[in-house]
Amino acid sequence: MQNEFEGKVALITGATGAIGKGVAVKLLKQGANVFISDLNEEVVKVTCQEIGCKGMAADVTSEEKVKVVVDKAVATYGSVDVLINVAGIIGTGAVEDLTEEVWDQMFAVNCKGSFFFTKYVVPIMKDKKAGKIINFSSKSGKTGSALMSHYCAAKGAIIAFTQALAFELATFGINVNCICPGITDNTGVWDTCSEGYIKDMNLPREEVINKFTAKIPLGRLASIEDVSSVTVFLASKGSDYMTGQAMNVTGGREMH
Length: 256
What we know:
Number of strands: 7
CATH superfamily: NAD(P)-binding Rossmann-like Domain
CATH class: Alpha Beta
Oligomer: single chain
Order of helices and strands: EHEHEHEHEHEHHHE
Mean pLDDT: 94
Number of helices: 8
Distance between the termini: 29 Å
Structural class: alpha/beta
């Protein structure tokens, strides 16, 4: 398994965040050539130096900028064998308080970004008649969460997008799956989400954490290692007979 990805090229979005970086490090250790992208140019540069990969900053909501990233990845490494769409945002709020701008931004980053990267990577994979695409949804894309209607709607759309692509691309040897993590500790997403719940539920941080942990059969939040391990499996040959799946990484909280 150590050299599972020797010579393979993985393009990872949202890769300066905790999960994206964790996936990148795992793939690098297994021999992959990794090209990362995220919004902040300086942070992308620092991350590339830190973990030893190439990358380019881009706003995933801009089709033009996404195409430039894909072209740069191909120019750097010659191809793209694995696309991992981690980039996303989260938010909380009562539905009557959500603005059209907030709703549209949620869908733009979480859905449009995955669409644009997929659009420009798929022709490369079709030419090779092989490829792995892994999208990031959430357990909230399967079972809605209060005060997160816009986030749940966007993540539900990612699951449907994944399933549609699985049918569309199967004859080209391209597997398309997605990850549905539960609450993952030590991530910016959980920090943002917990801050929102503390405010909206008017509860102290420790009580909010206890409320969520109590719902998880395995009794703890997910770790970055938990999520990155499943992601790398879906990128590997071990998942060759899997497509259109929305894999739960929730400690048993989500079971469908």
